[in-house]
Design goal:
The chain is mostly helical. The chain contains 1 helix and no strands.
Length: about 15
């Protein structure tokens, strides 16, 4: 599954 920057941003926020 290729994630775009938007998806990566969501995952990054989830980590915090």
């Amino acid at each position: 599954m290729k994630c775009t920057r938007i998806c990566a941003e969501k995952a990054w926020k989830t980590i915090w």
